[in-house]
Design a protein that fits this description.
There is one protein chain. This protein is α/β, with parallel strands linked by helices and 360 residues long. Helix content is 28%, strand content 25%. It has ten helices and 15 strands. The strands form three sheets. Strands 3, 4, 5, 6, 7, 14 and 15 form a seven-stranded mixed β-sheet that branches. A six-stranded parallel β-sheet has the order 10-9-8-11-12-13, with helices on both faces. Strand 12, helix 8 and strand 13 form a beta-alpha-beta unit. The longest helix has 21 residues. The chain is globular.
Amino acid sequence: MTLPTKTFAVRLFEYGGPEKLICGEYDLPPLGERDVLIKNFAGSVSRWDVKYRAGDLARYQLPGRAPFPLPQQLGREAAGEVVAVGAAVAKFAPGDRVIGVTHPEDPDGVETARGLGNLSRNLAIPGHQAFGSYAQYLVRDERMWLPLPDGIDYEQAGVALWPFSSSHRVVHDRLRVRLGDTVLIAGASGGMGQATLQLCKLAGARVIAATRYAGKAAVLRELGADAAVVTADVEQARGEVLALSGGEGVDHAVDYTGSPDMLRLLGSVMRLGGSLVVTSEQGREPMPFTASDMIRLELNLLGIRGARMNDMLAVLKLLGERRISTRIAARFALARVGEAHDLLARSSDLVGRIVVLPWG
């Protein structure tokens, strides 16, 4: 069998608008002894992709991680079929279905030994430091792939692992959501919010979805939210949340917006002893909470940075059991990925995720 030496792909050579995403035939790296060559059937476009392309995160750097390099091939998620494997690969064989690891861990790192593999240093994340999935063929180390359970279609696989595994860490580890808890999710219409909503419902919680756009409220209820609150009028939204929680406030809140106004709203509706998870890198301003707020409410203010391997494995199990799914907002061929970026950047009524289909 003759292996492909080139791939159709989309790469970024300089920051700017969607027109800076350049389609072409590019050389594939040679297949190393522990590498796997994948025919990529599905991936995603995320808001991170849009920010990286525009240069908004040019100086963004996590501890122990290299900065974003140019040229780059964006795309964090991938799902496809094994074409060939290196001589030392025992985990996979041609024809196997696989899904790309979105949150790799350093097995020898001190953070992994502490149970915090999501904080591993010296890693190259696909689409961030290493070439991502905007391509028809991908070559990566075998540790960057997981077996894809039978029966999961490639579209769902291509948009699930990043948001659901991060959300699993939020729900299962950071908040420890329990049966009967009330959870308020701000930014519930995006991929992370949608995933958090579903995992909270599986845990037996009551979910209130907060959105700035009235047109999204009905869709959020269709997705499983017990109630949807429009936050255009903050005081009215505050009153609705308190009424929905019997005047007690919510047990947990998750913010996916990074908006200071939204954080103030969430802080004002927390139950005594409640927990608030902040997730968005958009929030560069000081937090709108005082020491008095923290003491008065005995508020637990938590951060979240990615997921761990056990979160990804839990998500794959739920996918295989068909207990979770992602609403698809739009589909684009790889050659039209610039249009997908434009849609994501300008659309305020988008609910769900954008799938990229490298083979059309």
